Amino acid sequence: MLALQILIDGFAISALYALGAVGFTLIFGVSGVLNLAHGGLMLIAAVAAWYTAGELHAGQYIGAITGLAFGVLAAFLTYFVVVRPIQRSRAIPRDETEIFVLTGTLLWGIMIQEAVAYFFSDNPLTVPALISGVANIDGVRVPFNEILVAVISWLSIGLLWILVNRTRAGKALLACAINPRGLTLLGFELGRIYLLVWLIYGLLVAAAGVLLATFLGTSSGNTGALTASAFSIVVLGGLGSVSGSLIAAYVVGYMETLTAYLVSPQIRTIPSLLLLVLVLYVRPQGLLGRR
Fold first, then answer.
1. Is residue 290 part of a domain?
2. Residue 107 falls inside a structural domain
3. 268 closest CA partner among 243, 235, 232
4. Whole-structure pTM value
5. What are the backbone angles phi and psi of residue 176, rounded to the nearest 5°?
6. Structural domain count of the chain
7. How confident is the prediction along the chain (291 residues), in pLDDT tens digits per residue?
8. Contact 274, 252 (CB under 8 A)
9. Do residues 275 and 266 lie in contact, with contact meaning Cβ atoms separated by under 8 Å?
10. For residue 264, how many other CB atoms are within 10 A of its CB?
11. Does 289 reside within a domain?
């Protein structure tokens, strides 16, 4: 029975990780940005959903929609306030832009974390479940909300796949990831492509933050852990590889679930981080990465 519980919980957690990691991978693949404020953006979406649903008594669905809106807004703020000014600064050498973006988004994430702790709380915040009830799967009680989290995560990933592979805008995103200069020669404006990818990223990271808050809860104290998990998954799967991130999300998700159940929840992230270090030694480009 414990094995089945681990299997079910690990699947839901991994699906949630995959949703967040796909957004992280997409934003890097298209715009070359490793956003270390990732956990902070998830936190903003979760807090907005919690405040609207709980403090304003608007209900969990209005709360979830509000969380999505604030997550997208936070993503655009990250781009316009932190990333783009650094990328366009003439005072920063071109070959040092990436490290400045890393540093800038890291500090931005810390600012978000401290602001949420100051204005709201550093205690765990939980958004009411999107759906009530419990299913019995071969003797294991599983909340319907946990099942819904996994379903929504994979539906979102599926919609992203359709967008990228079946629409003109999506194919432009792929082309931008491969050869942005060539895309501009075809008449596309890179600025619009970057706005689109940050919009998609904002929706994905916000959805991950809201779903996490309805499933496990979140707090300002685990913002760094959320960013570390997403970063580990993306590096483990291979920078810029969506399929690699999906595989890595399940590797990390199940490793954390096994550790939480069999050892201690307090050290659930340690085995996956050790695996990341090992992979960096053996295969620096990750599971399916090319660089």
1. no
2. yes
3. 232
4. 0.92
5. -65, -35
6. 1
7. 788 888 999 999 999 999 999 988 889 888 888 899 999 999 999 999 999 998 898 999 999 999 999 999 999 999 999 999 999 988 888 888 989 999 999 999 999 999 999 988 788 888 899 999 998 888 888 999 999 999 999 999 999 999 988 888 888 888 888 778 777 777 778 888 999 999 999 999 999 999 999 988 888 888 888 888 888 888 888 877 888 889 999 999 999 899 988 888 888 888 878 888 888 888 877 777 655
8. no
9. no
10. 10
11. no
Q: In Å, how far from its chain's centre is CA 206? A: 8
Asked whether residue 199 is assigned to any structural domain, the reply reads yes
CATH of the domain at 200: 1.10.3470
Enclosing H/E stretch for 14 = helix 2-31
- Domain containing residue 181: 2-282
How many CB atoms neighbour CB 50 within 10 A?
A: 25
- The three state secondary structure string of 120-138 is CCCCCECCCCCCCCEEEEC
Tell me which residue has tokens 């595989």: 247
Distances from the Cα of 149 to the Cαs of 34, 66, 153, in angstroms?
A: 26, 17, 6
Task: Copy the structure tokens of residue 71.
Answer: 């997550």
Separation in Å, CA 253 to CA 70, 190, 229: 26, 35, 9
